[in-house]
């Protein structure tokens, strides 16, 4: 094999000579391939040392231009200079992925325009841009060649005004908009031009009031809408939507093809009652359901409708319930109506109004008529306490879940624990919660422990003695 000399340009020698290193003489396409496999920082350094790599750097396929990647402690002017130098040395040819994070407010719009014009060229597949609030993302950047190649478009913190004149994005499968100023009508224009779209994620897009997802999106299977607080209506006609995540204020939800829905995550006020009352008929084929609410006005109703295929259920109850503390025992309605349920996770946060304690109650514990559940295997309750309704719910599950393999009762409402690691601390809890911990243990021993079958593993997680000394 033949070798060629590589001049490093580093005058580190005794007689002023320049050090050279011998590298193999390989075809240009092999050098380009080797260079493309390097992380960006290593690839940039190699380009500074080798003319062969300098040539292939101009076609390097993946550029991550973020504050930590370029230099964590530089001023914004130097960051601008670094980005400008990198993009001027790159020909834009062969670029597949561009991640650009300006990390702050920029007044020199012309710089960003020239950067995007140089980098966003036909052949690019992944574009992830975090810009600034007043910057208008130019639709002209999505030229015909770019629209033919781009697969993943992520825009953060900018203005985006697509119109009906925008041509089709033939290969776009993933679209994410975060804190982007775009109206519902403008988004609908974009969606009509994205027929291959499989995933749509919207975060804090506060100009959207009416979200319309057209039926032409035959491939759309995943929809996320979080923090769009002016949103009032979600109308989805996509025929194959199977996973949806929504968090915000309560909205009018209309899913034309809801029979395909397999997984739903919803977080908004009164969602627990809504889920029990409406979802069995709207989404009868749900397999995974996660619901969370900070405000529940009424308890969960006991109804005849069932979740026949539901296997995994997560319920998160926040700190505000009106007009009285939430009746956890009413959640047995989900237990009774879900014959295929395998895992149940309940996160019970303490309410503003104090629950009735199982020790302070003169009445007997409520029970259900005999109801054998054959599938439930894993139950975890976080934020467990001596609240009477919570003890009643737990006793009911233990008594009737004949296949139960593991029951975990955790005093903490969140799973953050130190696990014995010195540099990590458990989630902070109040002194009142520490006092409640001893009552929780007593309630478990008195009402629950003897009802647990020998085949069921009972795990009781008390506060960590290191992080929460009593």
Automatic annotation (TrEMBL):
Domain At1g61320/AtMIF1 LRR: 86-465
Gene3D superfamilies: Ribonuclease Inhibitor
Pfam family, one: LRR_At1g61320_AtMIF1
Protein name: At1g61320/AtMIF1 LRR domain-containing protein
Organism: Panicum hallii var. hallii
């Amino acid at each position: 094999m033949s070798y060629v000399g590589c001049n490093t340009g580093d005058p580190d020698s005794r007689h002023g000579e320049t050090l050279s290193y011998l590298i193999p003489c390989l075809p240009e396409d092999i050098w380009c391939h080797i260079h493309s496999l390097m992380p960006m920082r290593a690839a940039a350094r190699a380009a500074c040392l080798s003319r062969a790599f300098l040539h292939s750097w101009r076609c390097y396929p993946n550029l991550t231009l973020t504050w930590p990647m370029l230099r964590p402690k530089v001023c914004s002017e130097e960051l601008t200079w670094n980005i400008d130098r990198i993009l001027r040395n790159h020909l834009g040819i062969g670029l597949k992925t561009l991640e650009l994070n300006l990390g702050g407010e920029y007044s020199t719009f012309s710089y960003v325009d020239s950067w995007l014009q140089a980098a966003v060229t036909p052949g690019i597949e992944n574009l992830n841009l975090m810009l600034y609030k007043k910057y208008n993302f130019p639709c002209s950047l999505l030229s015909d060649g770019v629209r033919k190649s781009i697969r993943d478009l992520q825009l953060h913190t900018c203005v985006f005004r697509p119109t009906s004149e925008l041509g089709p994005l033939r290969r776009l499968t993933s679209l994410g908009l975060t804190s982007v100023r775009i109206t519902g009508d403008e988004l609908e224009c974009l969606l009509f031009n994205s027929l291959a779209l499989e995933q749509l994620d919207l975060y804090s897009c506060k100009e959207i009031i009416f979200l319309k997802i057209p039926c032409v999106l035959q491939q759309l299977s995943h929809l996320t809408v979080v923090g769009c607080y002016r949103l009032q209506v979600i109308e989805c006609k996509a025929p194959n939507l199977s996973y949806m995540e929504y968090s915000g204020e309560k909205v009018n939800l209309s899913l034309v093809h809801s029979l395909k829905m397999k997984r739903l995550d919803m977080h908004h006020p009164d969602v627990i009652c809504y889920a029990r009352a409406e979802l069995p008929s709207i989404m009868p084929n749900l397999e995974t359901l996660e619901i969370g609410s900070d405000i529940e006005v009424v308890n969960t109703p006991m109804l005849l409708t069932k979740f026949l295929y539901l296997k995994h259920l997560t319920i998160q109850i926040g700190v505000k319930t009106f007009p009285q503390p939430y009746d956890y025992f009413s959640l047995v309605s989900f237990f009774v109506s879900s014959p295929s349920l395998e895992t149940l996770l309940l996160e019970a946060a303490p309410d503003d109004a104090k629950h009735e304690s199982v020790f302070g109650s003169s009445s007997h514990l409520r029970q259900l008529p005999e109801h054998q559940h054959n599938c439930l295997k894993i139950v975890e309750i976080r934020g467990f306490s001596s609240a009477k309704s919570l003890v009643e719910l737990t006793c009911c599950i233990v008594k009737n879940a004949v296949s139960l393999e593991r029951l975990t009762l955790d005093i903490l409402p969140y799973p953050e624990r130190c696990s014995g690691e010195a540099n990590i601390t458990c989630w902070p809890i109040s002194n009142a919660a520490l006092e409640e911990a001893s009552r929780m243990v007593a309630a478990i021993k008195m009402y629950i422990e003897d009802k647990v079958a020998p085949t069921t593993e009972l795990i009781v997680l008390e506060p960590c003695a290191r992080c929460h000394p009593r």
